[in-house]
């Protein structure tokens, strides 16, 4: 998505060879017009798949997942992150490590909001190692719902997440693929 790449070049801050700060458009501030445009693109990519729910993980994925769900005219469900899990018999939970944050979190979706009849489109902001994404995919699989695909705004091609998820047979579409952040430069794939 050319508009998104332009905005990443204008507003992204290369912190290191591994980390690109995107607070101006994804992780702190949200541009509604750009976000709705991204939602339209995901809706176009996954049209005709019979999606019944969009899911994401709180918090940075919510805006673009909302935009996608709005376009597809289906509900958005965001997995909650809980520091301590209260016993909820209706919840599907997974423990996910975050290498960048150095912590472990539990993510959960209540069975009330995901059912075996669902066709799920999973939307997320950034895929790096993919731990959170693999955790949410496990929850979707355990629910009995069908995962039609995963749409991510930014794919860091030099980290293993996207590749390992595609190797599981999941269709993964990204709007911007970052090949390298070496020498303080943002280099896109293709
Ligand atoms: P994962 O999201 O692929 O599982 O990877 P990882 O554990 O490495 O990432 C932890 C968090 O850091 C994730 O946000 C992820 O989106 C974010 N992240 C990883 N690399 C980058 C990067 O280069 N730039 C930015 N801006 N973020 C990055 P999260 O914990 O899911 O949280 P939140 O953003 O929803 O609060
Ligand atoms: Na994030
Ligand atoms: Na996220």
UniProtKB/TrEMBL annotation:
The keyword Transferase applies. The gene is xpt. PANTHER family: HYPOXANTHINE/GUANINE PHOSPHORIBOSYLTRANSFERASE, XANTHINE PHOSPHORIBOSYLTRANSFERASE. This is Xanthine phosphoribosyltransferase. One of its GO terms (cellular component) is cytoplasm. Transmembrane segments: none annotated. It comes from Paenibacillus rhizophilus. One of its GO terms (biological process) is purine ribonucleoside salvage. It is found in: Cytoplasm. HAMAP family: XPRTase. Keywords: Cytoplasm, Glycosyltransferase, Purine salvage, Transferase.
